[in-house]
């Protein structure tokens, strides 16, 4: 394309057309350059492609878009490492051989050694017993943290090793016995799951605090085994908290139930009625629900009886009225408890997560294009061109997050249409582009909410610990075991995000002597979100 004789004389519409043509040409040249690099490597006889990271690398979209120096700075010396360490013991070592006469003492030469003491420590508490003149027997209380025949330090070690360290129960039992601890497998199981209500409550409150105060959450799920049956573990979180919940299915009803964060009520309010209308429930049925004087139901049984009395369960139509009404009542309960107020739900395009303000992950979007099989050179080039353009748009969305302006917002919307409305002649690719074009509001949610991430990498990283636990320990056999596993894995992830060591957190809750005090995690989350 030749340069026009006078650019200043072009109108705004003509300049817009010119810019579009130039960007198309840049996309074509980028794809051609990638092919030329591959051909040069082949001609030189290299074993693989050169170590050049093109913008079409599917698994590094976010990393490739960061500045080259981010995360690569070398650590500089910050003074003696031992300056901030607490010295627990000083040992003075004299010379190993007699010194000659006239030698003078010149002080000591310090050398700090870190060590770990792991050994059994048995304490016999001899509590005084007194009998008052009135005949009442008084026995001295146990120190704080003593609950049963295993001390708080041992209980902390067991919980941290099993949940954060991912040590299996047989190996943990072998460790403890090697240390000299007299403990059975049944006793170890009790240390892991018995009387953990305080931790379960705090894990639930962490989820509630996150849903109440966060501007966005990302979600994901993975398979889970419970009582010998296949189920699903749902992850909910963001950069301040993580929560897990294992259930029997991955339906939308299940996801909405997870978002209630432990509440059991069903609520018919404006939010619930709007959901029902949006998902195709007939207007007369909505009016029947809205006109009933009872709007709040304590549990599933009460709401199910209500639907039966209104005749919704007897209707055999699509969509199922009882299911849509139940989903709406769950969504209404979520709103009634103040959860997800104007918060965005970021997901990988799984259907059960598509509710409320919804955004899609760009990594998964690009991956759909990457996975297409191209059998001709023309189709392969068309696929690479589209991937290059998606990468270019992705980088510009990141730039928009750093400096959102109305002009850039309009330009990115226009570019989205140009990319996903084009037809390449590659039939499968064209069908995919058409489908992705329909997801424009979710993919461009970042233009309205620059604070949300463009991917669900955080969720995939969070849920990896649950996958690891499933692989090394299998499934759970009891409901309390399932709940404890979900709670402690979520608390460990939350502690890491808040900059709290899980060791200190468990020590504080178990009243380990001289342990660093850790505040309640829900309060920390609310404070961080309030000051963000």
Structure, described:
The chain is an alpha/beta fold and about 525 residues long. It has a domain at about 360-450. It is about 50% helix and about 10% strand. The chain has 21 helices and 9 strands. It has helices at about 10-45, 60-65, 150-165, 170-180, 185-195, 195-215, 250-260, 270-280, 285-290, 300-310, 320-335, 360-370, 375-400, 405-420, 425-435, 440-445, 445-450, 455-475, 480-500, 500-510, 520-530; strands at about 130, 135-140, 215-225, 230-235, 240-245, 265, 295, 345, 355-360. The chain has a 5-stranded mixed sheet with strand order 5-4-3-8-9, sandwiched between helices. The protein has a two-stranded antiparallel sheet with strand order 1-2. A hairpin with a 5-residue loop joins strand 1 and strand 2 (about 135-140). The relative contact order is 0.12. The model is unreliable at about 50-60 and about 65-75 (pLDDT under 50).
């Amino acid at each position: 394309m030749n340069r026009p004789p006078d650019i200043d004389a072009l109108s705004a519409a003509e300049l817009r057309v010119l810019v579009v043509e130039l960007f198309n040409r840049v996309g074509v040249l980028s794809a051609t350059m990638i092919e030329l690099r591959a051909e040069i490597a082949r001609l030189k006889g290299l074993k693989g492609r050169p170590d050049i990271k093109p913008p079409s690398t599917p698994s590094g979209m976010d990393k490739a878009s960061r500045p080259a120096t981010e995360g690569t700075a070398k650590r500089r010396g910050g003074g003696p490492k031992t300056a901030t360490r607490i010295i627990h013991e000083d040992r003075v070592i004299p010379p190993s051989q007699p010194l000659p006469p006239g030698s003078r003492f010149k002080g000591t030469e310090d050398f700090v050694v870190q060590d770990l003491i792991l050994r059994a420590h048995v304490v016999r508490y001899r509590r005084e017993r007194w009998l008052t003149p009135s005949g009442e027997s008084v026995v001295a209380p146990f120190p704080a943290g003593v609950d049963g025949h295993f001390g708080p330090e041992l209980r902390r070690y067991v919980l941290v090793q099993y949940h954060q360290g991912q040590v299996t129960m047989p190996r943990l039992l072998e460790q403890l016995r090697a240390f000299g601890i007299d403990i059975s497998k049944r006793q170890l199981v009790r240390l892991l799951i018995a009387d953990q209500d305080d931790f379960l409550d705090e894990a639930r409150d962490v989820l509630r605090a996150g849903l109440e105060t966060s501007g966005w959450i990302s979600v994901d799920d993975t398979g889970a085994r419970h009582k010998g049956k296949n189920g699903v573990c749902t992850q909910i979180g963001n950069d301040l908290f993580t929560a897990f919940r294992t259930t029997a299915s991955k339906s939308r009803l299940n996801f909405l139930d997870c978002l209630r964060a432990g509440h059991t009520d069903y609520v018919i309010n404006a939010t619930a009625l709007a959901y029902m209308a949006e998902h195709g429930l007939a207007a007369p049925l909505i009016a029947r629900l809205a006109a009933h004087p009872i709007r709040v139901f304590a549990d599933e049984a009460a709401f199910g009886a209500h639907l039966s009395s209104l005749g919704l369960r007897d209707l055999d139509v699509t969509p199922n009225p009882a299911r849509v009404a139940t989903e709406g009542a769950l969504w209404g309960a979520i709103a009634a408890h103040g959860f997800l107020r104007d918060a965005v739900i970021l997901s990988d395009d799984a259907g059960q997560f598509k509710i409320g303000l919804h955004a899609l992950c760009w990594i998964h979007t690009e991956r759909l294009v990457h996975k297409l099989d191209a059998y001709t050179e023309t189709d392969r080039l068309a696929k690479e061109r589209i991937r290059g353009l998606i990468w270019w748009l992705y980088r510009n969305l990141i730039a928009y997050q750093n400096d959102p302006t109305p002009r850039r917002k309009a330009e990115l919307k226009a570019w989205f249409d140009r990319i996903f409305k084009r037809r390449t002649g590659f039939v499968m690719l064209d069908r995919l582009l058409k489908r992705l074009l329909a997801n424009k509001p979710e993919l461009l949610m970042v233009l309205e909410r620059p604070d949300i991430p463009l991917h669900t990498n955080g969720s995939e990283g969070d849920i990896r610990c649950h996958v690891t636990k499933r692989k090394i320990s299998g499934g759970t056999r009891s409901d309390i075991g399932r709940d404890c596993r979900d709670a402690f894995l979520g608390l460990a992830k939350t502690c890491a995000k808040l900059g709290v060591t899980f060791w200190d957190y468990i020590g504080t809750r178990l009243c380990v002597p001289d342990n660093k005090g850790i505040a309640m995690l829900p309060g920390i989350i609310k404070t961080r979100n309030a000051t963000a």
